[in-house]
Amino acid sequence: MFLVGLVGIQFFPTSRNQSDTIVKTDFMLVNDVPKQVENIITTSCYDCHSNNTDYPWYNKVQPVAWFLEDHVAHGKEELNFNEWADYSSRRKNSKLKSIISQIEDGEMPLWSYTLIHREAELSKDEKKIVLEWISKLKDSL
Ligand code: HEC
């Protein structure tokens, strides 16, 4: 019965968070982001905090897909790197502060996500690199 159910739910599609357009307001385009920092943030954060989710095969399998869809919808609402340039200075400042505390506290990326997306997990060094650069950016605003 469980198997039948698992097969059955594959027919309920999820909406795709995907877009081909390179957004002019993207965080990486409007800031002079070092390649290393860019790689870390795109790998660990962009699936949920941008208009483009990279969907490996297991994310097309239910119920994983529903679960991710929910995170993407919520994550984007709170912070969308693609819309960075449209944020007010005040909002940028508060988001950068929040990014720092989320990473410091190990809240982001969500553990339920890194459970399957091992490559998104931040090592100690990666955390340090990102935190240092984000703090510098915040001070320069
Ligand atoms: C699996 C999806 C997912 C990934 C990956 C992810 N986030 Fe999030 N993020 C969320 C969701 C959902 C929320 C809102 C609910 C919550 O706080 O749990 C959120 C909230 C946030 C907030 C709070 C925004 C605010 O207004 O205070 C920040 C900052 C944030 N994420 C930064 C990051 C950073 C930086 C990364 C990468 C290191 C990251 N997130 C990776 C899903 C994700």
UniProtKB/TrEMBL annotation:
Q: Where would I find the Haem-binding domain in this sequence?
A: 3-138
Question: Could you tell me the superkingdom of the organism this chain comes from?
Answer: Bacteria
SMART domains referenced in this protein's UniProt entry, alphabetically = Haem_bd
* Name assigned to this protein: Haem-binding domain-containing protein
Source organism lineage?
Bacteria, Pseudomonadati, Bacteroidota, Flavobacteriia, Flavobacteriales
